[in-house]
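so i finally got all the pieces together for this one. its two components total, 237 residues if u count the protein bits. some of the lines might not be protein, just check the labels. i wanna see the whole assembly predicted at once instead of chain by chain like last time, that was a mess tbh
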Amino acid sequence: MTLLITVFAAVTATAVWYKRKDDSMQTGVLCFLYWGAAIMWLVDAVFEYAELGAEYFGPSAADMLNDAFLGLSVVALGLVIWLVRLLVTDPKGTVRAALSKQSRC
Amino acid sequence: MACFLVSAAEAVVVTAVEKIEEKKEKEAALTGKDGEEAVRIPLSRKLGWLKYMLWGGVILLAFEHLWHGEIVPYFPFLSAMSDPADTAVMLHEMATVGVCMALLITAVWAVMCVAADLIVKRSGRTASKETA
């Protein structure tokens, strides 16, 4: 479930990156972040499947709920990391402009 | 258990190599040695892609390990380190799952680099045909 949610996040981020007009939102970073995690979880899933077999595809409802909650938390963490990076690098100068405006007031 | 540590080690190395490469490219641009390579994607940029994929995977997987209680906020920080039997399992997992994760990410990155170079070359050829 975590892998699935991360893959959906990676695909969505990539679609947003493809539609972008300029690179000021740095969505490419978000794509790499999610794809990196998705690839790593894919390897984890393959090893788990090799160990459990078909049982891997029949998790209990409680496990699925926990994994879904984890997946959503992972997506949220990825978004927070991207947002912090965006505000720190400030490619459009929005933060700098806002701060200099405040200091003048 | 701690499979992400292999990718973390690779991420540290890649970040260092990227910085060195970036410095070299800046120096080459200043001395004007990069004339022919201007249409190619710089290696530092490609290494940046690998760096972001590795760090992204490492941070998000570390969060998952924290979620499952495999990372603890006190020494030795990995719950598997407190028991020798668990440590052996952890090391085995790092050698199998961890190495495979790092290899697959690097393989995906290598394919991406080849594809990106082909796209840049193709668009360069199309542009030169149009101007001719």
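Chain A has a mean pLDDT of 92.
Chain A touches chain B at residues 2, 6, 28-29, 32-37, 39-44, 46-47, 70, 73-74, 77-78, 81 (CB under 8 Å).
anyway lmk what u think
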